[in-house]
Amino acid sequence: MNCPKVAIIVPVYNTERYIAECLISCINQTLKEIEIIVVDDCSPDNAMGIAEDFASKYSTIKIVHNEVNQGPFYARKRGTEITNAEFIMYLDSDDTIALDSTEKMYDRAVKSQSDIVHAYRISSNIIDKAGPVEELQGDEIVANMFLKNNYMAYYVCGRLFKRELLLKTFEVLDFVQPNICVSEDLLQMLVILFLANKSSGLPIAFYNYRVNTSSLTRSITDESILRRSEDQRTVLKYIEELDSSCIASNALFVPVKLKVCNLINYYIEFSERLLSNKY
C-alpha cells in the first residue's frame, strides 16, 4: 500500500470478548486507503489470537508485539511511530467506530486544513459532544477544551489527528515512563491542544464507547482503585515536568495546568473516599 490516508491504532490488552467487533468496524471502513495497526501489549487472554486470525485474512491489518506490557500511552506511541499515514485515529479494542467515520473525518480535515478533527461519541445510548465542531485556531483550541467548558472531554480515542502533530507531542512527553493506564490521555491531550494550529469537527457520533466494567478505569476492586490513584499521582508529576517544556511559555499554560491538576486531584480524592466507604 502507498502512504495510507488514515491509520487506526488499536492497543490490545485483555479484550478477548470485544476485539472481533472492534476490528470488524475497522476493516469495513468506507475509506479504503487505511491501515489498521494492532499493538499487542502482552495481552494475557486470546485477544491477540483473534487479531492474528483477522490479520491473516486482511492485508490492511498490521500486528505489532510489545515485549513487555507498557500501557496504552506507549502502545499508541509505538503505533504512531510505525505508520506513515497522514492522519491517525486511536481506537480502544473494546470499542467500535461507525463505518464512514474515517472517510468523513478525513474529508473534514483536508477541506478545513485541520490538525485535529473532533466528533461526538455515544455511550449507553447517550451522545457525548466530545469537542467543538466549529473551526478554531491557535490558543482558541486549548482554551475551548480546558477553560471555556466545565466538561473536559479530554480522551484521545475517536478523534482524527495529523501524525506530525502526534509525533511532536511524544517528543514533548519523552520523559513519560511506561505503564500509566489512567489519565494518560489527559496528559497527551493537554500537549496536543497546545501544539495544534487548527481544529474542526463534525456533529456526528462516530465512536461507540463501551462501558467495560472489567477495565481498569471502571473496576471497583481495591487493587484497581489504588492503581488509578497511583497513575493519577504520576500524571500530576508529569504535568509539573511540563514547566520546562516548549508549551510552558504560552500565556494559557498556567491557568490550564491549574484546572487540569484540580480535576486530577478531584479524581484522587474520589478514589480515596470510595476506599474509605468500603470499610
Give the tags.
alpha/beta; 42% helix; globular; 279 residues; 19% strand; 10-stranded mixed beta sheet
Q: TL;DR?
A:
With 279 residues, the protein is α/β, with parallel strands linked by helices. It has helices at 19-27, 47-57, 72-82, 101-112, 139-146, 163-172, 184-195, 222-241, 253-277, and strands spanning 6-12, 34-40, 61-65, 87-90, 96-97, 116-123, 126-128, 136-137, 160-162, 198-208. The chain is built from 9 helices and 10 strands.
Question: Can you describe what's shown?
Answer:
- The chain contains nine helices and ten strands.
- The chain has helices at 19-27, 47-57, 72-82, 101-112, 139-146, 163-172, 184-195, 222-241, 253-277; strands at 6-12, 34-40, 61-65, 87-90, 96-97, 116-123, 126-128, 136-137, 160-162, 198-208.
- The longest helix has 25 residues, at 253-277.
- Helix content is 42%, strand content 19%.
- Strands 1, 2, 3, 4, 5, 6, 7, 8, 9 and 10 form a ten-stranded mixed β-sheet that branches.
- The chain is globular.
- It is α/β, with parallel strands linked by helices and 279 residues long.
